[in-house]
Amino acid sequence: MIRRETLQAWALILPALVLLVAFTHWPAVTTVLDSFYSTPKGSRPQRFVGVDNYAALWDDVVFWKAFWNNLWYALATIPASVILALAMALAVNTALPGRPLVRMAYFTPTMLPMIAVANIWLFFFTPDYGLFDHVLSLFGGARHNWLGEPATALPAMMVVAVWKEAGFFMIFYLAALQAMPPDLQEASNLEGGSRWYFFRRVTLPLLMPTTLFVLVNAVINAFRVVDHVVVMTRGGPNNATNLLLYYIYEMGFRFWDTSMAATLTVVLLVMLGALAWLQFGVFGKRVHYR
What is the pTM of this model? Predict the structure, then answer.
C-alpha cells in the first residue's frame, strides 16, 4: 500500500512536474529528434535524413562566423564582467561616502530590460550625433560608425554586455564579502599582513564558491545573447555581430528552416554542457564551502 504521505507529496509536486516536463524536457527531446529530420514544407512531409543536417552545418560558413564571433564575445565579456563585478563589490563593501547611492548606481543597469539598454546604447553609438562621437569631436576626433564597421561592431556589443551584467554579478560578490567573519581581517592585521596578501590568500579562496556560480551564469549569458543583437545590428555588418543564438533565431523564424534551427540548438547545448563540465572539473577542486 502506498502511504498517504507519499500520495500527498506526489500531488503537491505533480503540477510543477507536469509543467517542467511539458515545457523543458519534452521540447529538449523533440529538438534532438528534429535535428535528424528535414524541415516539412507545404505538402512535403518531414523525412529522416540522419546526420545530413550536421554535415550541412559543418560546411556552413555563416555558422562558423557566428561560432567564432560568440567565442570571442565570451572570452572578452566573461573575464571583464567578473573582474569588474568583484572590483565594484570590494569598493562598495568599504566605508565609502554615499555608499547606498553608489551601490544603486552599480546595480541600476541590471534592472533595465535589455531592449531598453540596447536603445540607450544605440544613441551612444550613433555617428555624428551620438555621445561617443560628440565627445571625440571636442578633442578633434573624426566621425566613427561604431556599429556599421566590422572592426568595431562586435567590441561595441561587448561593452554593452559588460555594462549590463557587471552590476548583477556584483550583488553576489557583495553578499559573499559581507558574510565573511570580520575577525579574519583583524587577525591578518595583527600578524602584519598587507591588504594585498589578505585579498590573495584569504578573500579570493573564500570567494571561490561565488566565483564558480558567477562564472557558470556568465558563460550561459555569453551564449544566449539575442535581444540586443536584434535591436542594434541584426547580426551585421556582414555577419560581424552574428552570434549563435541569433543565428538559431534567424534559421527558425526568418528562413523557417526548423530542422537546421534544431541542429544548431543541439550543438549549442552540447557546447554549454561541455563548458559546464569543464568549469566544475577545473574550479570544483578549488572551491571550499567550509
Answer: 0.88
